Amino acid sequence: MPLDLVAQVPGTFTGPASQAYLYYTDDKKHWAPGLKVAVTR
Predict the structure, then answer these.
(1) pLDDT-derived band of residue 26, with 50, 70 and 90 as boundaries?
(2) Whole-angstrom Cα distance, residue 39 to residue 17?
(3) Which of 7, 11, 31, 41 is the least buried, fewest Cβ under 10 Å from its Cβ?
């Protein structure tokens, strides 16, 4: 699937962290840091 993206605002951006756990075991969560991207132009 082709996808063309155009950056409008330069800067460094970080998405929110995410978590995963099995049903009924929320005490054993695994956290992944948010993805970071740097837009230069």
Answers:
(1) confident
(2) 20
(3) 41
Number of other CB atoms surrounding residue 34 within 10 Å: 10
End-to-end Cα distance, the chain: 25
C-alpha–C-alpha distance, residues 33 and 18, integer Å? 7
* CB distance 11 to 39 below 8 Å: yes
Alpha-carbon distance of 4 to 41, in angstroms, equals 15
| pLDDT tens digits, one per residue of 29-38 | 999 999 999 9
Read off the pTM.
0.55
